[in-house]
């Protein structure tokens, strides 16, 4: 299956971020690409920070063979599984003073509606900008 995908010149590769990295299937695909142009996009459960997005992008780029060129990227807020909320609630009961856990819980609630229409429109704008499409 992957072998059939390796014939293109430009790849638009999307993934959720799980535990700070792309999915294992996407990682395996990226590792096989050679001499390609790649646009990366991802949804991130704990989103909202451009610095964090940049760190994640660099991690993913680190998987790519050096013959490839990343021609653009877009990262945005993404949904999280309900188990994450349950874990936050458990941790909050055990660590009542930890304000970061409250922030994490608030972020979980905000993430429920993402990616949304604005995220999708911003992705399209980024693709057009990065690829110089009018």
Strand order of the largest sheet: 1-2-3
Distance between the termini: 34 Å
Helicity range of the residues? 40-55%
How many helix segments?
6
Q: What coarse outline follows from CA principal-axis ratios?
A: elongated
Chain-averaged pLDDT: 90
The count of DSSP E runs of length 2 or more, i.e. the number of strands, is 3
Strand content bin = 15-25%
The largest pleated sheet is described as:
3 strands, parallel
Low-confidence stretches: none
- CA radius of gyration is 17 Å
The helix/strand order is: HEHEHEHHH
Specify the structural class.
alpha/beta
Short description:
It contains six helices and three strands. The chain has 134 residues and is of the alpha/beta class.
Task: Summarize this structure as a short list of keywords or feature phrases.
134 residues, alpha/beta, three-stranded parallel beta sheet, 3 strands, elongated
Provide an overview of this structure:
The chain is elongated, with a radius of gyration of 17 Å. It has helices spanning 2-5, 24-32, 50-61, 82-94, 99-111, 117-130, and strands at residues 10-17, 37-44, 69-77. Strand 2 (37-44), helix 3 and strand 3 form a beta-alpha-beta unit. Helices cover 49% and strands 19% of the residues. With 134 residues, it is of the alpha/beta class.
Outline the fold blueprint:
Elements: H1 2-5, E1 10-17, H2 24-32, E2 37-44, H3 50-61, E3 69-77, H4 82-94, H5 99-111, H6 117-130
Parallel strand pairs: 1-2, 2-3
